[in-house]
Amino acid sequence: MEDKERYNHLNTYYKNKFGERTLKICIDAGFSCPNRDGTLSSNGCIFCSEKGSGELIKFSNLDISNQVRNFLNSYRGKRANKFIAYFQNFTNTYDSVENLKSKYDSALIDDRIVGLSVATRPDCITEEIANLLASYSNKYNVSVELGLQTSNDKIGKLINRCYSSCQFTTAVNILRKNNIEVIAHIMIGLPNETFDDIKNTVSFINAHDIQGIKIHSTYITKNTVLADMYYNNQYEPITLEYYLNTLAYVISHLRPDIIIHRISGDAPKDLLVAPEWNTHKKWILNGFEKLLKEKDLWQGKYYSNKTV
Ligand code: SF4
């Protein structure tokens, strides 16, 4: 296979969908998470950093509309004409429908915004919330990023995610009934995870009506339970080589229609404990391209719906 993308790159998908380069505006809307505020747990998922993955959001100290304005006026904002308002950190559907609407509306303040994307947990999707999100579909491309990490509920318990894989299925069904695009989030290298767990997670994903996936390696940030486990020799991070080979398995067994939104995590350098290679995005992206070429692999090469 030559001169063709070996997996469905997000940028190409956006170009085809919106007709040109389209960038995400990352927004910190000040949400919390039931896994952090004591409702389900106070500790959060064992890898969750203080800002719930929002460390790299610029202007997060501003209100939502000003975060959007500042981004559009910034250097990055001048590099495209179309944008997606992306509610990124913590649980962006964890509030009343009225408050959610008010927050989403605060971001949709410019005609160049063509999409609304919301990251959340499966147990925070209800029919009412899906209806609210669907109400934006006549004007915007609406998508929801749903955490899964693994289909193995035992590991789910170990990482303290406080929802089950069955709840993921329910959330996907509710969202798809409302024609909302679903992007699943999975991780490679979780504690106690075997290669069979990866295989099962890929089969689980393939069996769901999802449109996109984000994949990243498990990395350790400061002041997390995972960092304590690492310092107590209870957790050893995976190597770059293991990550790339496992990623190659995932991509080559994944349904060919799914869009790959990400294959590397963005750990803030000053917060990263380990593994060090995680800060080298190019090592991951270029290393993965090289591996796919060497092994002549592509997305869905070994996909079979019989395995589902
Ligand atoms: S669901 Fe997300 S925000 Fe909540 S604790 Fe887990 S990783 Fe953090």
CATH architecture: 2-Layer Sandwich
Cα Rg:
19 Å
Describe the largest sheet: 7 strands, parallel
Strand arrangement within the widest β-sheet reads 1-2-3-4-5-6-8
What is the top-level CATH class? Answer: Alpha Beta
Number of strands: 9
Helix content: 25-40%
Model description:
With 308 residues, the chain is α/β, with parallel strands linked by helices. It has a single domain (10-307), classed as Transcription Regulator spoIIAA (2-Layer Sandwich), CATH 3.30.750. It is built from ten helices and nine strands. It has helices at 10-18, 64-73, 97-107, 127-134, 153-158, 165-177, 195-206, 225-231, 240-253, 281-295, and strands spanning 22-27, 82-87, 113-120, 141-149, 181-188, 212-217, 220-221, 259-262, 272-274. The strands form two sheets. It has a seven-stranded parallel sheet, sandwiched between helices. A two-stranded antiparallel sheet has the order 7-9. Strand 3, helix 4 (127-134) and strand 4 form a beta-alpha-beta unit. Helix 7 runs parallel beside helix 9 and helix 9 packs across helix 10 (281-295). The radius of gyration is 19 Å and the shape is globular. The model has no long low-confidence stretch (mean pLDDT 95). Bound molecules: iron/sulfur cluster. Residues 33, 35-36, 44-45, 48, 52, 90-91, 121, 147, 161 line the site of iron/sulfur cluster.
